[in-house]
Write a structure and sequence with these properties.
Helix content: 40-55%
Radius of gyration: 13 Å
Number of helices: 5
Distance between the termini: 8 Å
């Protein structure tokens, strides 16, 4: 499974900047700020996406895409849970597959395999 520490930080930063998001990397073993699932899973607070080096790339992409797909009036209040409905969740999953192409060394096939695992 591709982890944040295994891929190009520059490509992650460039992707998130396109959507006005900021990557916040936390220390290994530290509880991830804004993580809904806990463990190594990415977290969101406002327009910041929180990860550790062991965070799966698909988790980083999923939470980032939640912020992207969230209505502007909800973005400012995001903390742990993006909420939304089933249609938004489908959009988030589809978008994360598309955006995986912009992270060096990941791509669609890899992110879909990791999502299934």
């Amino acid at each position: 499974m591709a982890a944040v520490g295994d891929v190009s930080r520059a490509s992650i930063d460039a992707l998130l900047r396109k959507y006005g998001l900021q990557l916040r990397v936390q220390a290994k073993g530290e509880q991830i700020t804004g993580s809904y699932w806990g463990g190594a899973e990415a977290g969101i607070v406002g327009q910041s996406v929180y990860v550790r080096s062991d965070t799966p790339v698909h988790s980083l992409l999923h939470e980032s895409c939640h912020v992207v797909c969230t209505a502007t009036h909800r973005r400012e209040q995001l903390d742990h849970d993006a909420g939304g409905d089933d249609l938004e969740e489908v959009a988030v999953c589809f978008l994360q597959v598309l955006l995986a192409e912009q992270i060096e060394g990941v791509g669609r096939e890899r992110v879909m395999q990791d999502m299934d695992a």
